[in-house]
Write a structure and sequence with these properties.
Chain lengths: 295, 372
């Protein structure tokens, strides 16, 4: 029983960071119907900002606001440089644009910095654990779970209780109708990117605390995990993104722990089989949302 | 007259002999400068360029100039094959190859045994095939994992746990380590699976290890440095006190920059930067000439080794013909390189050369053993 409990705790810890990553992807999908594969570049840029600040001798107290700011500004920059020009194009064009941004940012860092990994110090408390009833709880996991809940609550409040949120939801429901009603398209899209940048920033802080490194593909794995979590939860749903992240983390940990020795190497493949099975029975993901509720 | 590598490394680019003339010995480098292989081939190509300048600075190879053409394969098999064809068309006598087999095999499909290919930074055993004139310059994974197991046994460690992922390198190294370690009387008490490059959370494996009767004497893996650092932190967090022995991936992926997180780690690697060693002389000379040190002197040294192998074959045969040079490389014995002395055992394209075991002490490499 303790072993299962430990695995559940490990899975929720792992899944919480995926949930944070999925939230930013869900926001952009809700407004633009775009699965933004360039979301990981916000983490890549944050990683290099972190590395640069560390080389200047600054610590995590400075890094946290710097990561949030750099992620938000990068999101705005990507919207201005890439997505603005294809906003009225097909969904497929926008997805291709997001791939283009991903490869361009990667190439810029390879050319301007290096293909080599750059390392910076992780916070001292990162791997500390507390034991409760025989179950080890990582302080890091507890912090991430807490911030995931706070971030989810804050985002839901912003979307449901503020004028900005109302314009986001209106744009998500029918962009053209919202414009006719006086919603300014540039402002709402910019706002969505700022929000997704902040959410990516929060996820980056915790992701980078763990990895402690910058490289041109630093954002690739978190982006893929975030997209998977958002898909599992139901694209466009904030609560679904969090549920999807937690489900992904739990499934990964349970497979790693429970598969027979010779089959553990199939963990990643089995995760995708589970996702495929989910989509057979629930193509919309775990959470069903009416279009009007999207974001 | 032979090739005096020490004289070459001591050359001053500001005070060169008259430029050599005549038919140049052409060498190509299909270098992966992308985010995939750039960690190895960026310093390797920079060092190769510098090393060729030094050779020409001392008058070439017995008066024959060396010409190096670097083609960026961009981490793409199609680009690799085009680059290989361009180098063949340019009449190179040998090609230096990229680190990963995903691009090494496409390269070999084009060269098809017409020209020798020396893989500078690859440790993948299946890439070496003398019949195809394909050679490794670094030791292969069989050698490095065997050396790691031998080292572990020499330390008196009797139990080990491995972290692996099925497939070459990440799976093959732990597999060979297990074979050799157990054949030598050790026991591998557990093998934990992980996803190379991607995993940043080893809490489930750490908690499983915490439940073992006793922690293993050593954890062996081919994982990247940042993953090893996270694993160590999480094992420390749950009270598992053990040692870490990692492959050359540790140094290649910035193990020393991890600071305290990897203090005490052991790892196998290609050279040891002892004061006055050729690796250090190459690195210092490069820095003096360009204003920046090599990002990874070991890979720089391996590139110089590859060029030294081609020069040795050229000197023994006096031929520019790639087939003749390739056949001579296959019989190379005792070639003085930057990372060590290289020989190819009969019928093998993987060199016999030392495996250095480093320990991280105060954030610096300390030589724990030299195996082979």
């Amino acid at each position: 029983m303790t072993e299962l409990l430990q695995q559940l705790v490990d899975g929720i810890g792992r899944g919480s960071i995926y949930a944070l990553l999925a939230l930013g992807i869900a926001v952009i999908f809700g407004v633009m119907h775009l699965v933004n594969f360039a979301h990981g570049e916000l983490i890549t840029v944050s990683a290099y900002v972190s590395y640069a600040l560390f080389t200047l001798g600054l610590d995590w107290w400075v890094l946290v606001p710097a990561i949030l700011a750099s992620s938000m500004l990068t999101a705005l920059g990507i919207e201005f440089a890439a997505f603005r020009w294809v906003r009225n194009s097909s969904d497929f064009t926008m997805v291709l644009t997001s791939f283009g941004v991903h490869f361009v940012v990667q190439a810029i860092f390879v050319m301007a910095v290096s293909a080599n990994r750059r390392t910076f110090a992780r916070p001292g408390w990162l791997f500390e654990t507390v034991s409760v009833g025989g179950v080890n709880l990582e302080i890091y996991d507890l912090v991430v779970i807490g911030f995931t809940l706070i971030t989810l609550a804050g985002t839901v409040w912003l979307v449901r209780r503020t004028m900005f949120g109302m314009t986001l939801r209106a744009a998500a429901e029918d962009f053209e109708a919202a414009r006719l009603m006086g919603v300014r398209s540039n402002r709402v899209i910019r706002g969505a990117f700022v929000l997704s940048g902040i959410l990516a920033g929060v996820a980056s802080i915790f992701w980078l605390m763990r990895t402690g490194q910058a490289d041109p593909t630093a954002g690739l794995t978190p982006m893929l995990k975030g997209v998977l979590a958002a898909l599992i939860g139901g694209l466009g749903s904030l609560g679904g993104a969090v549920l999807g992240g937690l489900a992904l983390g739990l499934v990964e940990v349970l497979l790693i722990s429970r598969l027979p020795d010779g089959l553990v190497g199939l963990t990643d493949g089995m995760v995708f089989v589970c996702i495929a099975l989910l989509f057979v029975f629930r193509p919309q993901g775990m959470v069903t949302i009416r279009r009007a509720e999207r974001v | 007259m032979g090739f005096d590598i020490d004289a070459v490394l001591a050359a001053d680019l500001n005070d060169c002999a008259p430029a050599p003339s005549g038919d140049p010995l052409k060498i190509g480098f299909a270098a992966d400068l992308s985010d995939l292989g750039g960690f190895a081939d960026a310093p390797a190509s920079q060092a190769a360029d510098y090393f060729v300048d030094l050779i020409n600075c001392v008058g070439g190879v017995n008066g024959t100039p060396l010409e190096l053409t670097i083609q960026n394969i961009e981490g793409d098999p199609d680009v690799t094959q085009r680059a290989a064809q361009d180098l063949l068309d340019a009449g190179v006598s040998a090609i230096l190859g990229p680190p990963f087999p995903d691009f090494g095999f496409p390269l070999l499909q084009v060269t098809a045994g017409q020209v020798p290919v020396l893989f500078v930074a690859s440790t993948e055993p299946t890439l070496s095939d003398p019949a195809q004139l394909a050679f490794l310059v670094a030791f292969d994974d069989t050698a490095q994992a065997s050396a790691a197991a031998e080292f572990a046994l020499d330390q008196g460690w009797t139990t080990a746990a491995t972290f692996s992922s099925p497939g070459p390198n990440f799976g093959y190294n732990p597999e060979i380590f297990t074979e050799v370690f157990e054949a030598g009387g050790g026991t591998v008490i557990a093998d934990y699976n992980y996803v190379p490059i991607e995993d940043v959370d080893f809490s489930s494996q750490a908690n499983e290890m915490a439940n073992l009767d006793a922690p293993p004497d050593v954890v062996y893996s081919a994982m990247l440095a940042f993953q090893a650092a996270i694993l160590r932190g999480q094992l420390d967090g749950v009270g598992v006190d053990t040692r870490f022995l990692i492959t050359d991936a540790f140094e290649a992926t910035g193990g020393y920059a991890e600071g305290e997180a990897t203090e005490g780690f052991y790892h196998t690697t290609h050279s040891f930067p002892a004061a006055g060693s050729r690796v250090v002389i190459l690195d210092e000379g490069f820095e003096a000439a360009t204003g920046a040190a090599l990002e990874n002197p070991s890979f720089g040294g391996l590139a110089a080794d590859a060029i030294a192998m081609v020069i040795d074959a050229f000197l023994r045969t006096g031929s520019h013909d790639p087939a003749v040079i390739g056949a001579a490389i296959a019989e190379a014995q005792g070639v003085e390189g930057v990372t060590g002395v290289l020989s190819y055992p009969s019928g093998s394209g993987s060199p016999e050369k030392p495996v250095y075991v480093h320990q991280v002490v105060n954030g610096e490499p300390s030589l724990a053993a030299t195996i082979g």
